[in-house]
Specification:
Elements: E1 19-23, E2 28-34, E3 40-47, H1 51-55, E4 62-66, H2 71-80, E5 84-88, H3 90-93, H4 103-114, H5 127-159, H6 168-181, H7 188-221, H8 223-228, H9 236-246, H10 255-262, E6 266-271, E7 274-280, H11 286-300, H12 312-321, H13 324-345, H14 349-352
Parallel strand pairs: 1-4, 4-5
Antiparallel strand pairs: 1-2, 2-3, 6-7
Helix pairs in contact: 5-7, 5-9, 7-9, 9-11, 10-13, 11-13
Length: about 350
């Protein structure tokens, strides 16, 4: 007589887990799970495509993962299955790493860190935020390539004894005239190379313009971007970059935390009750820090407008005692804190002052 196989619930056969650490790889994931006693009760690896199938077999619990390229996608997938995903900055995982580096040890350290109640986590990004962030990264890369092309053209011209005034527009307006008037001094091969770089430059200009138009279109539709653009010095680029990075700012308790995350606060070294503050920490998002400092320099170029701003009196007094670069950094910090306040309270700049 044929024996009938027993049907059992797969999840019921799994050990009771309190946290799982996931080491995300390009093709293979390694997971380590802890039980209620803090002991390792699960060690497994599987292919990326088996993510949902494998986690459907596990009991719902806290799942930690390091912040990386696909962490937000994995987090959304696990949240849909009922898990509690936590995206952890890599610097906060490192203290929990034991032994030598390997995938299982990394996953165990992540699982250990995920249990800490006061750990600062990365806010899970929506697909719209990731798309907007991708636009900014593409534009930044294109601008970098354009700058490299311009610098290479200048270098080749200087090798021929031709110096051009600083500024991209100066080079753009005079390049063809230089090549035509110095035809006897510049070899045909060098001429062709420079023309090729100039064509690359024009092509990159068009691509940058297209991506910039996409970003500006989003800033006109997004209400949070419109509110941010009510702040002096903040336009479509900064507003969309901030929204892409932090959404509504829920990951930060106060504006100073956001400024610290950008890296606009002094580096601190304090011991024995003695506090020593140095230069800015430059931690976190270099891209946002650069944008805010550029905005601050833009405001400093127009002192006649300072009295129109709520922080105009502070800015005028600070300008008397601070170096211009230090003043720009302090102003950038103030702008970042104002930006966070506007996002958290959903008010425009003038309204946010009364909150």
């Amino acid at each position: 007589m044929a024996m009938r196989a027993k049907t059992t619930n797969t999840k019921a056969t799994q050990p009771e887990l309190t946290s799982i650490g996931v080491d995300i790889g390009k093709d293979v994931f390694h997971i380590v799970g802890f039980d209620r006693d803090g002991k390792v009760a699960l060690r497994r690896k599987f292919k990326r495509l088996a993510l949902i199938r494998e986690f459907e077999k596990l009991p719902c619990c806290i799942v930690g993962m390091e912040a990386c390229l696909s962490a937000h996608f994995v987090s959304r997938q696990l949240r849909a299955l009922g898990f509690k995903p936590r995206i952890i900055p890599a610097m906060y995982v490192k203290p929990f790493l034991k032994g030598q580096k390997n995938d299982y040890n990394d996953a165990e350290a992540i699982a250990e860190a995920a249990q800490r109640p006061n750990l600062k986590l990365v806010k899970e990004k929506t697909q719209d935020q990731l798309d907007l962030q991708a636009l900014h990264r593409v534009r930044s890369r294109l601008v970098s390539r354009r700058t490299a092309s311009i610098n290479q053209i200048r270098a080749f011209l200087i090798e021929q004894g031709i110096a051009v005034r600083t500024g991209a527009n100066s080079l753009r307006n005079s390049l063809l005239a230089i090549l035509r008037n110095r035809e006897d001094e510049i070899s045909p091969r060098m001429n062709d190379l420079i023309i090729g770089l100039y064509e690359d430059w024009l092509g990159l200009d068009k691509r940058i313009e297209t991506v910039t138009q996409d970003i500006e279109e989003i800033s006109r539709r997004e209400k949070n971007c419109q509110r941010l653009m009510s702040v002096p010095g903040i336009g479509p680029m900064i507003s969309t970059a901030v929204v892409a990075a932090i959404g509504t700012g829920e990951a930060f308790e106060r504006g100073r935390d956001f400024g610290a995350w950008i890296g606009l606060v002094p580096r601190q070294y304090s011991t024995g009750g003695r506090s020593i503050l140095g230069r800015i920490s430059k931690r976190g998002s270099k891209y946002l820090r650069t944008l805010f400092i550029q905005a601050a320099h833009d405001i400093l170029m127009r002192p006649q407008n300072w009295e129109k701003f709520s922080f105009g009196l502070w800015l005028a007094e600070a300008a008397k005692r601070m170096h211009r670069n230090k003043l720009a950094t302090a102003l950038a910090n103030k702008l970042s804190r104002i930006a966070w306040r506007i996002l958290r309270h959903s008010k425009k700049f003038d309204d946010a002052l009364a909150v």
